[in-house]
Amino acid sequence: MTAPKLQVPDHFEAFDIGLLGGPGEQLYRKARPEIDAMPWGTIDLSAFPETTIARARRVWTMAAFQEYRTGAACSLALQHLFRVQAPLDLIAVATRFPLDEVVHVELCGRLVAELGGAMELRHDPASLVPRLKPELDPLLQCAEIMMRVFCVGEAVSIPILRASWQHAELPLLRAILGRIVKDEAVHGQLGFWFLDWCGDAFDADERAHLERAARDEIGKLLQSWARFETPALGAEADEVPGAFGLSDAGDDAGTLGWMPVDVYLPTAHQALDDAVLKPLLDRGFDPRRAEPIPGH
Ligand SMILES: [Fe+2]
Ligand SMILES: [Fe+2]
Questions:
Q1: Strand partners, 72
Q2: Which ligand gives the minimal distance to the CA of 96?
Q3: Which of 139, 159, 239, 258 is 20 to 30 Å from 55 at the Cα level?
Q4: Model-level pTM greater than 0.70?
Q5: 47 C-alpha to center of ligand 1: Å?
Q6: Mean pLDDT for the chain?
Q7: Res. 243 pLDDT band, cuts 50 70 90
């Protein structure tokens, strides 16, 4: 019996990005010369089986989309930082992030092009960024997006990305992952700097709200990782948020940017403990005691 095919709703859109060219591109290239300086064209695809290349196209298409989604979330967070009159230095640091993510989108996208082109990816544009409740106090809304995007999402990805970079052997993969790791180092800290600024302003109910938001995001991560702990569920590398791919078996010829599961999972769980839970606990936020959000 074959499993029923998942239906993609009509309002989903194809993930399809490109460049306009001209003066805008020239300014962009001047601001981020590292993109052109990557060792493009150095991967010998004939050294890899077709299945590995197909998987790499999926993994890196998904990575480009994750970077794009993070860019949108960083932009929304930035808007909220302005709304609550966050300290200018905090805002200044955050202004760089959307551009960093655009660079990461292009790096992943150009790699995909070298691998033979993107796989089709359709997404719900309405779910591109976290949905906040407009009736909540502006500072609490801002803290919620900072918690979800930075204290959990960005913070957990840094040790995982660093490990992916350490495992990568091909010069182009090392250069791309190295660049991303370098940029992301600050992204993973901004949320905690934000809490250092305003964490004391929240009452018990508001703190509980933020702990629930953190728990919600952590729950999504644990759910995706659990699929690799239970191979029968049949997860694919590109289904894991924030992961630059991981392999389950059969990568004897080497990988194109992913880690073995037995390396990935301990790295991911350790990242959650060290880069998310510890700094949150240090600031009096304990997502482990939060009630789950209904429906999650
Ligand atoms: Fe990124
Ligand atoms: Fe980031």
A1: none
A2: 2
A3: 159
A4: yes
A5: 28
A6: 89
A7: very low
Residue 233 has pLDDT above 80, yes or no: no
Closest-lying ligand to the alpha carbon of 184? 2
Answer yes or no: is 218 within a domain. yes
If you measure from the C-alpha of residue 2 to the centroid of ligand 2, how many angstroms do you get, rounded to a whole number? 38
- Find the domain containing 202 and state its range: 46-289
The pLDDT value given to residue 203: 97
Residue 270 resides in a domain: yes
* Rg over CA atoms, the chain: 19
Cα–Cα distance for residue pair 45/290, rounded to 1 Å: 48
The number of distinct structural domains making up the chain is: 1
Look at residue 291 in the predicted model and tell me its pLDDT: 76
In a domain, 25, yes or no: no
pLDDT band at residue 263 under the 50/70/90 scheme: confident
Give the pLDDT score at 254: 65
Measure 182 CA to ligand 2 centroid, in angstroms. 10
Between CA 236 and CA 222 the distance in angstroms is 15
How far apart are the CA of 232 and the centre of ligand 2, in A?
A: 32
Ligand 1 ion: Cβ-proximal residues, 5 Å cutoff? 67, 101, 104
